[in-house]
């Protein structure tokens, strides 16, 4: 099936979503995704940051779709034409969504462990306004520990439901869920319970913001001062392939290996994540390649440029600002 | 923040209640017993006056689903009380149509008469009241309903509310 | 006097019992449909009738039925949407309370047409009295052989169940309703797939409003063509209108579509005018989700033609000067009603009822409510109106389900038509807390548009 996104045509398997087709092209035309996670079935459709405009439904039925659609949950049709960053309507809508996501967010990035690898931070940088128009008290929750290793800052949560899907699909049971409704919705266990099972730590990796953080790493360091190194070990529970985050000689954090879209390649177990924090526990593979978009790359680690398609003059014009910014960096 | 820290009284479901559950679950195809969750929670609330965490755990056990699935549902819908309420909960419609014909005055009157704020229980444990969204009786407003039968009282006036409250007090005595 | 197809016998004593209902010609459509018609022929009749969904969206019912997937060996479901919660709408409650067998008769015929052997009537949880009424009526119908195994000896089996919800407006959205019926949170599903392909328990499902299902009965009795003769243009048949607010005679009226709005408000056959001798200021014509119109625009279209109670005439003028028939929840506001307070009331409703699944609706409805609350209580700013319009635009069309649009439209339209009243709330803040803006120019005759 052929689908054209922002003027670039790609061949994809039937059943592929627009977002995944865009990811096959790569580069700036990939819509951001806060709630979709390719390894979690049923995720996506909720945050609305990946909205795109379908200007031609398919070869058979060329009518455009009446509304913007969530690209993560809309399948491609043969001959479909999609506009993402080339559509002012999409850019405007995305700005609106980012504003909505931020009005109740505490913006406590300076004290948040997720800062530097936070998708909401990236999104705000890209699409956010300089000032807020929201003049009311922000929604707040008390932070709670769910288990002795994971802390939940509900105030920062954007309700992507990823951690709920993770518990359903990766771990053997689910103790937390979305309670209440509307803007009172929250992640909670309702009755005080510790979320504790072999794979519970993965909720930290899937969380796009700093709502679920690793207590063993809490306030240890800013991520951009740490050195990511790829390593593995023989693990009887998981694949054992991880990223170690070093501060000097010490491993201060262990995470799954995340790809350019922030998704882990494979889920890891809690033993690897929380209990193996000595270099001797691991076989080191080499330095982690870090996306040049990440602030972590500001620390001059080796980086690979994205396979950005920068030959299209229309795209170049549409992304002038961004290109200039990247050139400066 | 929605979190139950204190221990709540354990509950037992009577065989009569369980047989009502069985009848409800029989309405759905094999393996889709979870569909019975909403009606079953209504029955639990009718029996105990509210839906406690231990009661929800029991329901989860009965339906062979996770407790969190019950909590998620019970907290989503507005009709389930997660805290003990008065014996009679006066739920007054507070949406546009009823407000045009004086629902707000009725709520003020109820607050004054009962002497408790929205969501609180009177000292005798008989009454609590709250404003709820549209009850689909806009032509007969102001309206209020009282569970667990959800009997309707339409075209309310201060006098009819007074009478209703004194009738309920008398009913509770007998 | 318009024809009554649904409420003809509403005043007959005992019409809520099987015997009386049957003696008035009830269940004739079941006999006709099951004994003499094929399911396809029934769908064809409903298509011919031009019946449009009575729940709000106005999608042709026959077409919806024809989309139903029919894979071999997979159950199909008909679910009746009785989650009537749209502010201003109370026709379904009325119909089910007084003439429950009409709904059951419609359910039997419709289920037969769709090939469903189990059907559910989903009622909002607050309608417990109606749950009891319907369950009693179902038991009666079953005892007389109209439900259960081998109905009327035709070999068709149907079980009908009533399911109460738990109190959530969002469950009126069909996929949220199905989620709720499956015992989950009422979060609308992301479409596609549509329920016609994968609905209840993943099986093909049709979800129809109570009134749509009831309307199938006269369509089968009289034929689709006859039904289509009633009404005007593509608005065929009769419609139940729930009239509320400051009217002399509020209540449920069955009208032939095409009655002029002015006649509906002022004639003695219908609402009998505005209560207490006051003047009409504004109207919400189809439930809280549709744009509110000032008196002059609801009585006349922008081209100075009389506005009619029909899908087309009410939406004449689009969002600029029109509204929608929606679910037929007709709320009239008199000269003393405060539009700002009412808009805040609606915004509070949508804030309260947002499911919280997708971000624009979850955050935006709360934001709008807070700004409107500030305006109503005298702390507003002149920039608030533009802010509200902008926020409503950011919600509209960007959400999973239509609740976002429904929350945005009343706010945007109130500001469009009543902006000076909003501004007065800012400039005369202290006065605004003690008195109303009044009718102002909202009932003045429209300026006739010069045609070149």
Automatic annotation (TrEMBL), chain A:
Residue intervals of the 2Fe-2S ferredoxin-type domain: 1-88
Domain of life: Bacteria
UniProt keyword annotation of Cytoplasm present: no
4Fe-4S His(Cys)3-ligated-type domain span: 89-128
GO cellular component: membrane
Lineage: Bacteria, Pseudomonadati, Bacteroidota, Sphingobacteriia, Sphingobacteriales
Cleavable signal peptide: none
Name of the protein in question: NADH dehydrogenase subunit G
UniProt-annotated location(s): Membrane
Similarity remark: Belongs to the complex I 75 kDa subunit family.
Main location: membrane
Keyword Endoplasmic reticulum: no
UniProtKB/TrEMBL annotation, chain B:
Gene3D superfamilies registered for this protein in UniProt: Glutaredoxin (3.40.30.10), NADH-quinone oxidoreductase subunit E (1.10.10.1590)
GO molecular function: 2 iron, 2 sulfur cluster binding; metal ion binding; NADH dehydrogenase activity
Keywords linked to the UniProt accession: 2Fe-2S, Iron, Iron-sulfur, Metal-binding
Keyword Metal-binding among record annotations: yes
Stretch forming the signal peptide: none
Residue stretches in coiled coil: none
Free-text cofactor note: Binds 1 [2Fe-2S] cluster.
Annotated residues for binding of [2Fe-2S] cluster: 93, 98, 134, 138
Cofactor dependency: [2Fe-2S] cluster
PANTHER family: NADH DEHYDROGENASE [UBIQUINONE] FLAVOPROTEIN 2, MITOCHONDRIAL, NADH DEHYDROGENASE UBIQUINONE FLAVOPROTEIN 2, MITOCHONDRIAL
Family the entry assigns: Belongs to the complex I 24 kDa subunit family.
Entry protein name: NADH dehydrogenase subunit E
From TrEMBL, chain C:
EC number: 7.1.1.-
The entry's keywords: 4Fe-4S, Flavoprotein, FMN, Iron, Iron-sulfur, Metal-binding, NAD, Quinone, Translocase
Reactions accelerated catalytically: a quinone + NADH + 5 H(+)(in) = a quinol + NAD(+) + 4 H(+)(out)
Cofactor(s) this protein cannot do without: [4Fe-4S] cluster; FMN
GO molecular function, one term: 4 iron, 4 sulfur cluster binding
Keyword Plastid among record annotations: no
Residues of the NADH-ubiquinone oxidoreductase 51kDa subunit iron-sulphur binding domain: 340-385
SUPFAM superfamilies: Nqo1 FMN-binding domain-like, Nqo1 middle domain-like, Nqo1C-terminal domain-like
PROSITE patterns: COMPLEX1_51K_2 (PS00645)
Entries under NCBIfam families matching the protein: nuoF_fam, PRK13596.1
Function: NDH-1 shuttles electrons from NADH, via FMN and iron-sulfur (Fe-S) centers, to quinones in the respiratory chain.
Similarity comment text for this entry: Belongs to the complex I 51 kDa subunit family.
Protein name as catalogued: NADH-quinone oxidoreductase subunit F
């Amino acid at each position: 099936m052929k689908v054209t996104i922002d003027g670039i045509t790609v061949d994809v398997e039937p059943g592929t979503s627009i977002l995944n087709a865009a990811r096959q092209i790569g580069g700036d035309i990939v819509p951001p995704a806060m709630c979709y996670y390719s390894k979690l079935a049923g995720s996506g459709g909720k945050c609305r940051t990946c909205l795109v405009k379908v200007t031609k439904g398919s070869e058979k039925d060329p009518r455009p779709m009446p509304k913007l659609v969530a690209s993560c949950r809309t399948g491609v049709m043969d001959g479909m034409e999609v506009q993402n960053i080339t559509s002012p309507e999409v850019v405007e809508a995305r700005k609106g969504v980012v504003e909505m996501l931020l009005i109740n967010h505490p913006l406590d990035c300076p004290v948040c462990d997720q800062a530097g690898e936070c998708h909401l931070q990236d999104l705000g940088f890209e699409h956010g306004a300089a000032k807020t128009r929201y003049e009311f008290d922000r929604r707040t929750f008390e932070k709670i520990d769910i288990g002795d290793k994971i802390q939940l800052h509900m105030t920062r949560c954007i309700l992507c439901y990823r951690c709920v899907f993770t518990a359903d699909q990766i771990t053997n049971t689910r103790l937390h869920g979305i309670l209440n409704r509307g803007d009172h919705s929250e992640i909670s266990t309702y009755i005080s319970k510790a979320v504790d099972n072999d794979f519970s730590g993965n909720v930290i990796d899937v969380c796009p913001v700093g709502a679920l953080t690793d207590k063993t790493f809490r306030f240890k360091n800013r991520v951009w001062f740490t050195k990511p190194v790829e390593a593995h070990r023989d693990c009887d529970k998981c694949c054992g392939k991880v990223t170690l985050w070093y501060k000097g000689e010490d491993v201060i954090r262990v995470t799954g290996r995340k790809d350019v879209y922030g998704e882990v390649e494979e889920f890891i177990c809690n033993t690897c994540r929380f209990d193996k924090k000595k270099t001797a526990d691991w076989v080191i593979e080499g330095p982690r390649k870090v996306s040049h978009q990440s602030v972590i790359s500001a620390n001059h680690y080796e980086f690979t440029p994205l396979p950005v398609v920068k030959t299209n003059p229309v795209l170049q014009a549409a992304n002038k600002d961004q290109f200039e910014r990247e050139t400066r960096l | 923040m929605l979190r139950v820290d204190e221990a709540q009284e354990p509950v037992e479901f009577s065989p009569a209640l369980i047989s009502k559950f069985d009848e409800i679950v029989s309405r759905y195809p094999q393996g889709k017993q979870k569909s019975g969750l909403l009606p079953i929670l209504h029955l639990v609330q009718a029996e105990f006056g509210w839906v406690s965490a231990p009661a929800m755990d029991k329901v989860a056990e009965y339906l062979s689903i996770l407790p969190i699935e019950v909590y998620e549902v019970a907290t989503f819908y507005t009709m389930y009380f997660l805290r003990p309420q008065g014996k009679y909960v006066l739920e007054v419609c507070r949406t546009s149509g009823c407000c045009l014909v004086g629902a707000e005055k009725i709520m003020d009157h109820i607050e004054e008469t009962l002497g408790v704020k929205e969501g609180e229980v009177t000292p005798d444990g008989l009454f609590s009241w709250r404003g709820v969204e549209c009850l689909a009786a806009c032509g007969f407003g102001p309206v209020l309903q009282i569970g667990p039968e959800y009997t309707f009282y339409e075209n309310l006036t201060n006098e009819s509310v007074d009478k209703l409250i004194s009738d309920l007090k008398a009913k509770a005595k007998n | 006097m318009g024809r009554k197809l649904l409420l003809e016998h509403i005043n007959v004593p005992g019409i809520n019992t099987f015997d009386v209902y049957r003696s008035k010609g009830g269940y004739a459509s079941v006999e006709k449909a099951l004994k003499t018609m094929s399911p396809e022929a029934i769908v064809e009749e409903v298509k011919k009738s031009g019946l449009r969904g009575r729940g709000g969206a106005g999608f042709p019912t026959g077409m919806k039925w024809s989309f139903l997937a029919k894979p071999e060996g997979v159950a199909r479901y008909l679910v009746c949407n009785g989650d009537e919660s749209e502010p201003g709408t109370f026709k379904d409650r009325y119909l089910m309370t007084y003439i429950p067998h009409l709904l059951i008769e419609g359910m039997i015929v419709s289920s037969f047409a769709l090939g469903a052997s189990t059907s559910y009537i989903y009622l909002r949880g607050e309608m417990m009295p109606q749950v009891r009424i319907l369950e009693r009526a179902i038991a009666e119908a079953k005892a007389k052989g109209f439900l259960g195994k081998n109905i009327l000896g035709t070999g068709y089996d149907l079980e009908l169940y009533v399911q109460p919800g738990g109190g959530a407006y969002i469950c009126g959205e069909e996929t949220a309703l199905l989620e709720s019926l499956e015992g989950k949170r009422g979060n609308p599903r992301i479409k596609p797939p549509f329920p016609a392909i994968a609905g209840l328990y993943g099986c093909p499902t049709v979800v129809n409003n109570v009134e749509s299902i009831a309307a199938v009965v006269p369509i089968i009795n009289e034929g689709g063509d006859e039904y289509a003769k009633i009404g005007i243009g593509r608005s065929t048949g009769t419609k139940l209108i729930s009239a509320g607010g400051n009217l002399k005679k509020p209540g449920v009226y069955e009208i032939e579509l095409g009655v002029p709005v002015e006649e509906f408000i002022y004639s003695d056959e219908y609402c009998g005018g505005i209560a207490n001798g006051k003047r009409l200021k504004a109207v919400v014509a189809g439930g809280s989700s549709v744009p509110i119109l000032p008196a002059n625009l609801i009585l006349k279209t922008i081209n100075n033609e009389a506005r009619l109670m029909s899908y087309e005439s009410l939406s004449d003028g689009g969002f600029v000067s029109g509204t929608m028939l929606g679910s037929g929840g007709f709320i009239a506001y008199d000269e003393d009603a405060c539009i700002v307070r009412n808009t805040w009331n609606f915004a509070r409703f949508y804030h309260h009822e947002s499911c919280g699944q997708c971000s624009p609706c979850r955050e935006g409805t709360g934001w709008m409510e807070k700004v409107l609350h500030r305006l109503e209580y005298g702390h507003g700013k002149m920039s608030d109106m533009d802010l509200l319009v902008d926020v409503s635009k950011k919600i509209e069309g960007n959400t999973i389900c239509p609740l976002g649009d429904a929350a945005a439209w009343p706010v945007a339209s109130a500001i469009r038509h009543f902006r000076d009243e909003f501004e007065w709330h800012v400039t005369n803040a202290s006065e605004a807390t003690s008195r109303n803006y009044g009718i102002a120019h909202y009932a003045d005759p429209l300026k006739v548009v010069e045609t070149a």
